[in-house]
Amino acid sequence: MNPPGAELGRRNAVYIGTGRQHDTGVVDGWLSIKMMLAGSAIWTTAEREFTVDESSYLILNDRHSYRLRFDSATPVTTFVLFFERELVEDALRCVTKPSARLLEEHGSPAAPAHFIERLETRANSLFGTLERFRRALTAGLSLAESEDWFLRIAARMARGERNAARAIHRLPAVRAATRKELFRRVLRGRDFLLSQAAEGVTLPGAARAACLSPFHFHRAFTRAFGATPHQMLTRHRLERAAAMLATGQPITDVCLAVGFESLGSFSTLFRRHYGVSPRGFQRRA
């Protein structure tokens, strides 16, 4: 399903690529979801940089320039979904507008689809849908079955955008424009947290990335996402750890790789989150 560039945006397509070193340079992008099956890669837009690994995904907009690059000692595998423009535009319209309005607008062209570009993790329900689609692809799918999957994914993307609008509305500001700008900044800090999860990331560092004071960032973040930055970072690290443990990697290596400094605190938090110790989880897997 690796399509020629001329077809991207005109039909749904999947691209899977493996290598140790790659740099696309700046390209005009298409509405797509970027995932990793192995390793990590960096997507850079004019606004910021996103590090995507096996426990996260990234949505990039149509006709938005970006650059992909990675340089690794071990093979890196990307898994990218490209969407037919009209499909996602129609999904956004159907999810965000009442039925009566949809009947009135039947036959009218939908507005171009535009998403708030951001990293999402395993905690997002769309991640599980994407993983199931990948497994179904491996097992073999007909064209009609693939189209059903793309429709399902487009609907979840649209609902995710509706949820982002609700998160914006929860922010502590009177003017709508101020709330949108505040959400944009909070997302920058959130993307920084998730991209640097394996490093010694701090609240002041994330706040600087968001161009906000630590208190302002913490308050707005918690209002928008219903969790503190520390809670979200810890959950993301534990989710990454679970995925790595399931592949049989040594527990100590996993603990350090996801950003925990103490094996004891890692084991305690893991048991609290999953109800079983890391070793017990690995045995089950």
Describe the structure.
The protein has about 280 residues and is of the alpha+beta class. It folds into 3 domains: about 5-85 and about 115-165, Sandwich (Jelly Rolls), CATH 2.60.120.280; about 175-230; about 245-285, no CATH class. About 50% of the residues lie in helices and about 20% in strands. The protein has 11 helices and 7 strands. Strands 1, 2, 3, 4, 5, 6 and 7 form a 7-stranded antiparallel β-sheet that branches. Helix 5 (about 175-195) packs across helix 6. The two termini are about 30 Å apart. The model has no long low-confidence stretch (mean pLDDT about 90).
- Quaternary organisation of the protein chains: single chain
Supply the number of structural domains.
3
Distance between the termini: 31 Å
Task: Give the helix level as a range of percent.
Answer: 40-55%
Whole-number mean pLDDT? 88
Approximately how much beta-strand content do the residues carry? 15-25%
Q: Could you name the CATH class of the largest domain?
A: Mainly Beta
Q: What's the alpha carbon Rg, rounded to whole Å? A: 20 Å
CATH architecture of the largest domain: Sandwich
**SSE string, helix = H, strand = E?**
EEEEEEHHEHHHHHHHHH
Return the CATH topology of the largest domain: Jelly Rolls
The structure class reads: alpha+beta
Characterize the biggest β-sheet: 7 strands, antiparallel
